Amino acid sequence: MKWDLNYLEENIGTSDFTVFQSSNHKFKYYDEKKIPKLNAEFIPPTTKLSMKFSEFTKCLTETKDSNSRLYLQECLNNNLGAEIVRDFLNFDWQFCTTIQSKHSWGPLTSNLLLVGMEGNVSPCHYDEQQNLFAQVLGHKRCILFPPEQFECLYPHPVFHPHDRQSMVDFDNPDHVRFPKFKELKGWETVIGPGEVLYIPIYWWHHIESLLAGGPTVTINFWYKAKPNGSVTYPLKGHQKVAIMRNIEKMLVDVLQDPNDVSPLLRAIVLGRYTEHT
């Protein structure tokens, strides 16, 4: 595919793009709508900016040797340049729709364009949609963990702005606070231009743009999950994660104060569902 930075800059149009700026190499997602729900002050780990693509590429050069890092993340739509829209329509949609049909996924919800600096990291998290992760430019290291390893990755509570993100710092894990992290086992791969990685719903993934590889360009294809049908037992890992999320959400909605959730869960579990030796 011809989508290198020069081609994108020449053809993508004059719209403003969403760019995140970080003082380090990590770009941990946060939900702005959930910030007011915290009693404690929440400091976003990145700054959200808006800029033209030409401004973004210029900043990539200027910040290359500084501590500041940038990551463009923008949905593809018909507001882009005519040539980019034409390229979009010429994607191998048969490949995508064949997979979608084979696995009975729901509809395509969005395509996300990701343009990042080498060394950028999307810390470990999971998503609630099926994801075809298509690499266009550069290489990325991807580490995946199944939903069954939920306990080893210690996600933030659902009401937290970092919902669906692991609390563990992979660069410096706190094994005292997160002891089960030592038991974590995953699958690692490196994907390059023309390769597509399937990231299943609720699967954890830690993504790194490889150093010395230059800027990276990726396109995500997001699909809704398979419509609910008859439930079969035993439940699968992703179904159990969905149940836990629903329980948390219900408790937060009913109790109103997130600080009341933990005491209530402890009262339900401790001494009744915990094992004794």
List keywords for this structure.
277 residues, alpha+beta, seven-stranded antiparallel beta sheet, four-stranded antiparallel beta sheet, 7 helices
Describe this structure in words.
With 277 residues, the protein is an alpha+beta fold. The protein has seven helices and eleven strands. A seven-stranded antiparallel beta sheet has the order 2-1-3-4-11-6-9. A four-stranded antiparallel beta sheet has the order 5-10-7-8, with no helix packed on it. The N and C termini lie far apart (60 Å). The model has no long low-confidence stretch (mean pLDDT 93).
Question: Secondary structure elements and their pairing?
Answer:
Blueprint: H1 5-11, E1 17-22, E2 47-51, H2 53-62, E3 69-75, H3 82-89, H4 93-102, E4 108-116, E5 121-125, E6 130-137, E7 140-145, H5 150-153, E8 187-191, E9 196-199, E10 204-209, E11 216-223, H6 237-255, H7 261-269
Antiparallel strand pairs: 1-2, 1-3, 3-4, 4-11, 5-10, 6-9, 6-11, 7-8, 7-10
